[in-house]
């Protein structure tokens, strides 16, 4: 029996299967050309991601915009005058007995703080708070009436911070504070009204007989103060020089006598010898209340 691989049989079979082999090769080639269109099989490595696009460059900074210039104010009409400003003068640094915005009173200022006195006495506040709305003018009126009843014919007003000072004329007294009787009480000679000052008193004392003399100054204010540690010096006396007023200005008198206000009496006592100037007595041998009582002022203040 002839073998399958014998040359004659093999040749015949080769030519019989050749068309089938060619067709198989053609189909295989077609499948390989279409392989990239097929989806990736499981387990296959995914393609690398595409590179991210570069960010766009930042926009240029905005150009500086010039601020609009303010429009000039329109000029006032020719027929209308420019508006007036209500500027007020500043208040004095030391108060001077007037409120802010007011013109200073036309009376001199008492030396501040007051020079050291021979004696001092607070006036009971209830004696001065009379009426529904007491003012500095009502307090001054009570002092004036009390001084008149006590025989004091002369007086003089000075300004102090947020208040006033009221000075009496000099009088001659005994060592216990009792005034000399009759006209001997005023032998020193009262200075004229409007020129009542310690300087005028000292000058009058230069020609007065030897003895003891007294001047009383009432201080009414709500400003805190203490006496100066020294007696009146010549410079301080000159600062008081004779410009006291006979009455209290309305700018001071209309101020309310508020809760913080108090009144004190300062007693200035001097001793005059047969020669030489008068000298201050510090302290006085009697209290301030005794001076006011024996001078005839204390009782009228308590009942008026």
Major beta sheet, specifics?
7 strands, antiparallel
In helices, the fraction of residues equals 25-40%
Number of helices: 8
List unreliable stretches of 5+ residues.
1-5, 35-44, 80-104, 190-196, 233-242
Distance between the termini: 176 Å
Provide the structure class. alpha+beta
| General shape | rod-shaped
Oligomer: single chain
Q: What is the N-to-C succession of helices and strands?
A: HEHHEEEHEHHEEHH
Radius of gyration, in Å, reads 57 Å
Content of β-strand: 5-15%
Task: Report the mean per-residue pLDDT as an integer.
Answer: 73
Question: What's the short version?
Answer:
This protein has 304 residues and is of the alpha+beta class.
Provide key terms for this protein:
304 residues, alpha+beta, seven-stranded antiparallel sheet
Description of the molecule:
25% of the residues lie in helices and 14% in strands. The chain is built from eight helices and seven strands. It is rod-shaped. Residues 1-5, 35-44, 80-104, 190-196 and 233-242 have low confidence and may be disordered. It has 304 residues and is α+β, with helices and mostly antiparallel strands. β2 and β3 form a beta hairpin. The longest helix is centred in the first third of the chain and has 27 residues, at 7-33. Strands 1, 2, 3, 4, 5, 6 and 7 form a seven-stranded antiparallel β-sheet that branches.
């Amino acid at each position: 029996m002839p073998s399958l691989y014998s040359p004659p049989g093999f040749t015949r079979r080769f030519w019989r299967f050749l068309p089938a082999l060619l067709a198989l090769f053609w189909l295989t080639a077609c499948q390989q050309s279409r392989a990239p269109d097929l989806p990736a099989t499981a387990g296959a490595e995914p393609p690398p991601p595409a590179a991210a696009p570069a960010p766009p460059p930042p926009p240029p900074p905005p150009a500086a915009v010039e601020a609009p210039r303010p429009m000039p104010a329109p000029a006032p009409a020719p027929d209308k005058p420019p508006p007036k400003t209500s500027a007020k003068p500043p208040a004095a640094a030391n108060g001077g007995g007037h409120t802010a915005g007011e013109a200073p009173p036309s009376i001199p200022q008492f030396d501040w703080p007051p020079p050291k006195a021979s004696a001092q006495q607070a006036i009971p506040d209830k004696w001065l708070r009379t009426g529904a709305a007491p003012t500095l003018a009502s307090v001054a009126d009570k002092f004036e009436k009390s001084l008149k009843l006590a025989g004091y014919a002369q007086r003089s007003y000075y300004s102090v911070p947020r208040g006033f000072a009221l000075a009496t004329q000099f009088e001659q007294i005994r060592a216990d504070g009792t005034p000399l009787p009759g006209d001997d009480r005023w032998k020193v000679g009262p200075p004229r009204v409007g020129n009542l000052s310690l300087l005028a008193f000292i000058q009058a004392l230069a020609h007065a007989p030897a003895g003891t003399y007294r001047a009383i100054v009432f201080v009414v204010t709500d400003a805190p103060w203490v006496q100066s540690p020294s007696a009146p010096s010549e410079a301080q006396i000159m600062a008081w020089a004779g410009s006291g007023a006979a009455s209290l200005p309305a700018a001071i008198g209309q101020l309310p006598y508020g809760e913080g206000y108090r009144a004190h009496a300062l007693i200035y006592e001097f001793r005059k010898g047969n020669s030489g100037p008068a000298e201050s007595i510090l302290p006085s041998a009697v209290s301030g209340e005794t001076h006011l009582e024996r001078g005839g002022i204390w009782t009228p203040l308590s009942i008026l």
